[in-house]
Amino acid sequence: MTPDNPAIELRAWRQFVAVAEELHFGRAAQRLHLTQPPVTQAIAQLEKALGVRLFDRTRRRVALTPAGEALLPEARELLARAQALPRRARAAAAGEVGRVRLAFVSTIGFEQLPLWVRDFRAQCPDVVLELAEATGDVQLQALARGDIDAGLLLHSPGAAPPGLARLAVAREPLVLALPEAHPLAQARPLPLARVLAEPLVIFPRRLVPSLHDAILGLYQAAGVQPQVAQEAIQMQTIVNLVWGGLGLAWVPASVTQFRRAGVRYRGADELAAGRTRRAAGPPLPVCETSLVWPPAADNPALARFVHFLRDRVAG
Questions:
Q1: C-alpha angle with apex 247: 243 to 248, nearest 5 degrees?
Q2: Which residue blocks in the chain are alpha helix, DSSP H?
Q3: What gap in Å lies between CA 66 and CA 45, rounded to an integer?
Q4: By C-alpha distance, which of 164, 159, 120 is closest to 142?
Q5: Which domains occur in the chain, in start order?
Q6: Peptide bond between residue 189 and the one before it cis (omega within 30 degrees of 0)
Q7: 177-224 tens-digit pLDDT
């Protein structure tokens, strides 16, 4: 132990605070359930360790020195924090304190995720949620590296990435996005054959292979070779490209929350009206969003978030 780096026990700081608040060694000793000599000796050792006087002592009075006055608030805070440590440890073990690094695809961020984050923070205010928007392929790489704790990613039903724990949190149909000025925007009924003949704007397959294949499967089932006019990563960009007239796009229904002027969304019921009984065509693809995380994850805060989300989905 040196004056520059003294190793001082909490007991010494507790005795310092008692004397500083009582300004009387006898009363401080009574408060600590000790006799006076050990308290007097402890304060002397503390002053020696720090290399400064903390108290001015006379036979009539005890007063704090400027150094003692400066240390008193810090010592009180130190003792309060030390007292809170057991409760903090129990809260961390229960997942009430900690951090969850969560990546998410843009589609879940339009409506559901903001509500989940709001309610989870109200329930667990001491858990920090670090959010990062990322495509599915980027999320899987980040999970493999340990850069995130969990991800909300998009896939076709039953095609979630293997090797990960999973909780399905949303299921939604695809809808057709097309420019308002397009002849098919107001068509009643909306013939599927004419839709499939139009140029297509779609995300690259590496982002969501299962959903990409399901969309192209719709064309293949109809015997049509899709005309991929443009690929784009973000759903907002895809919708903007549709607005620009590059083609039509199949997007999750949640994307309709992105209300781009000049773009119209049409659902499966409208497309179904354009099919004949003789050639009803295949069902339109649907997509799922799942929360995924490493099965061996040892993060109580993540477990708390999974439990919260499971309750929300069930409700």
A1: 85
A2: 10-22, 25-31, 36-50, 66-93, 106-109, 112-123, 136-145, 192-196, 209-221, 235-243, 268-272, 300-314
A3: 18
A4: 164
A5: 10-93 (1.10.10.10), 98-169+289-314 (3.40.190.10), 170-286 (3.40.190.290)
A6: yes
A7: 999 999 898 888 788 889 999 999 999 999 999 999 999 999 998 899
